[in-house]
Please model this.
Amino acid sequence: MDVKIEASWKEVLTNEFEKDYFKNLTKFVHEEYRTSNVYPPAKLIFNAFDQCPFSQLKVVILGQDPYHGPGQAHGLCFSVNDGIKFPPSLRNIFKEMQNDVAKPIPQSGNLTNWAKQGVLLLNATLTVRAGQAGSHQKKGWEEFTDAVIHKINEQKEHVVFILWGSYAIKKGEFIDQSKHLVLTSVHPSPLSASRGYFGNNHFSKTNAFLSEKNIPEIKW
Model:
């Protein structure tokens, strides 16, 4: 099966694409795009991987579902296209970044610049029906993204995993903390941000760890 994904990831994940669950997932996704309005645009399903090759990966931020409103999702978790109003969680992420590393809140919610520096902005589920949050969960994407995290855990060293909220924390339970840094807190959603997201200092902690390992820091 030919999956259009960045070359270093294709090499790492090639066995995954041949598994039955992934073939079934591909059929489901093709049919959904044919018959429904689905986000992100099909060519951007693997955008997180295309913008952050496996060889350059330093940090993983784990989200759950793509945004399901018009024009928002472009394949990077928490990120929106230029010109789109910041969703509440992203607004809180930028507030924490501003307080933690004294960076001004950007004009755009597009996080491609993070991805290009080695931040894998990975959603657990890579597609969603318009207006229907969670509509593509339990179709195989979670198995695929678990496999991605396993490959990173096994084949890389000194990666920072940033897990916000109980869903992400559970998904990353198996990560080997003797060779990677795992940062956890509540989710940046307005429902929980004031209960421990603000003040988690994950941006500065990430850079302190990278610096200690002689890996270039992220310019948040």
Q: What stands out?
A: Helices lie at 7-17, 20-35, 47-51, 88-101, 112-116, 141-155, 166-171, 202-212. The two ends are 37 Å apart (CA to CA). The mean pLDDT is 97.
